[in-house]
Design goal:
This protein has 441 residues and is α/β, with parallel strands linked by helices. It contains 14 helices and 19 strands. Helix 9 packs parallel to helix 10, helix 10 packs parallel to helix 12 and helix 13 packs parallel to helix 14. The structure holds S-adenosyl-L-homocysteine, iron/sulfur cluster (SF4) and FE3-S4 cluster. The site of FE3-S4 cluster (F3S) has 13 residues, from helix 1, helix 4 and helix 7.
């Protein structure tokens, strides 16, 4: 009998990928996914522990399912992901209605753990097993899918930034062998995928290919039908010559790079244990732009890290002014249990709020300026879905800008050359360049 699985995903793209794999694993047990928790036989929260707010959401979300569980005692409730890893037993204690807890490195055991919860028992697995979960997951299904996909190639982190829980929740850095990645990528392309984003907490530290991440990208570029390659997230210290060169001459590698720096003050970078200076980061950007002058950069920033002064914060603003980001994510520092920075003198909350506002004002202004500067330029759009208006399609440019285009000759998965004609608050408008349009179906 088919049963229904509702999965809610929090956090980073890696969790999005993991949720897909968990849904596929449960597919083998007769589960199909639903987007309505009230119809579900199993509810799975794939959680994020990166900031306190993210972690706390899990408990409020679980609270919302109390009624459902009371009405339907057979309903299974599971917690997966990074909160599961960090707080496994505490979750069981705080929310007795949770049937199972599974960490990010052991979710290949989800079907077996679910079996164990029949007749009311609890199951918890937050091991970092020796075996590679990807090798223990069943082959991925062959069904058609949309034009873009994530593909995890590297997981875990050995960098231990002083603020971050990831090395504890995801474990040590591991790379998947390139041949396995190639097989999965070919399968995705056969199923209709045109753009693959390679994922890893430190994706540019990938070592599953003799040529590192650059070697893997060049091999992927040989797959017919795969039109675009992206990767995220990179650490500045692992950005090697080969990868910089790939940005210059590998056509399928898109001119967009997420390269978090977190802060612009050397004192703070040192206390964050980022092991590079602001100057080294700026030099790296220069080299990247020398290889690919139109590269769009994106970053992550933390404001109010312990002992950050106004002068330190000004250094961050100055670095942002120097780089000019196409997009960015910024956060108030959040104390995470067990991380070294949580023990340091904290910046008052109102200071953090004020700095975040000023930082975001600058980032939004830059983002808008770079987006407006696209008007008049020609880009290629990969169509992902129909627009809200009839006869309209929406897709992404090379630079990851959303672009609306009026067209009756394209469908999902097609690429088209368009000229940008205007820039709105969150997207661009493009017009087809008929003589150049390159429809691939
Ligand atoms: N591996 C990636 C990022 C992982 S977490 C990297 O090294 O860049 C994503 C972002 O969350 C980080 O870049 C950082 O900006 C933010 N972050 C991580 N821990 C945080 C904390 N304790 N408080 C606030 N933001 C945090
Ligand atoms: Fe966290 Fe730093 Fe590792 Fe990124 S590099 S996952 S911020 S410890
Ligand atoms: Fe969150 Fe874990 Fe990703 S803590 S950001 S879901 S690696």
């Amino acid at each position: 009998m088919t049963k229904k699985l509702f999965i809610k995903t929090y956090g980073c793209q890696m969790n999005v990928y993991d949720s897909e794999r968990m849904a596929e694993a449960m597919g083998g047990e007769g589960y199909v996914t639903t987007d309505k928790p009230e119809d579900a036989d199993m509810i799975l929260l794939n959680t994020c522990h990166i900031r306190e707010k993210a972690a706390e959401k899990v408990y409020s979300e679980l609270g919302r399912y109390k009624g459902l569980k009371a009405d339907k005692p057979d309903l299974k409730i599971g917690v997966a992901g990074c909160v599961a890893q960090a707080e496994g037993e505490e979750i069981m204690r705080r929310q007795p209605m949770v049937d199972l807890v599974v960490g990010p490195q052991s979710y290949h055991k989800l079907p077996e753990l679910t079996q164990r919860t029949h007749n009311g028992a609890k199951a918890l697995d937050t091991d970092f097993p020796e075996e590679d979960k990807f090798e223990h997951l069943k082959a991925r299904p062959k069904a058609k899918r949309g034009p873009t996909a994530f593909l995890t190639v590297q997981e875990g982190c050995d960098k231990f930034c002083a603020f971050c829980v990831v090395p504890y929740t995801r474990g040590a850095e591991v790379s998947r062998p390139s041949q396995r990645v190639m097989t999965e990528a070919r399968d995705l392309v056969e199923r209709g995928v045109r753009e693959i984003t390679l994922l890893g907490q430190n994706v540019n530290a990938y070592h599953g290919h003799d040529g590192g991440l650059a070697g893997l990208i060049r091999e992927l570029a040989g797959i017919d039908g795969l039109e675009r390659i992206r990767f995220t997230t990179s650490h500045p210290n692992d950005m090697d010559e080969a990868l910089i060169a790939a940005h210059g001459d590998c056509e399928k590698l898109m001119p967009y790079l997420h390269l978090p720096v977190q802060a612009g003050s050397d004192k703070i970078l040192k206390r964050m244990n980022r092991s590079h200076t602001a100057e080294q980061y700026l030099k790296l950007i220069e080299r990247l732009r020398a290889a690919r002058p139109d590269l769009h950069l994106s970053g992550d920033f933390i404001v109010g890290f312990p002992e950050e002064t106004e002068a330190d914060f000004q250094d961050t603003l100055a670095l942002i002014e120097a780089v000019k980001y196409g997009s960015a994510f910024s956060f108030k520092y959040s104390e995470r249990p067990g991380t070294p920075a949580a023990e340091r003198p904290q910046v008052p909350e109102n200071e953090k709020d004020d700095r975040l506002q000023r930082l975001q004002a600058l980032l939004t202004k830059q983002q808008r300026e770079l987006q407006d500067a696209m008007v008049g330029r020609d880009v290629t759009v990969l169509f992902e879905k129909a627009g809200r208006l009839p006869g309209q399609m929406v897709g992404k440019s090379e630079y990851l800008h959303a672009v609306h285009v009026e067209t009756d000759q394209h469908q999902r998965g097609d690429l088209a050359k368009v000229r940008i004609v205007s820039s709105g608050p969150n997207s661009l408008k493009g017009a087809l360049i008929p003589e150049l349009h390159t429809a691939t179906a």
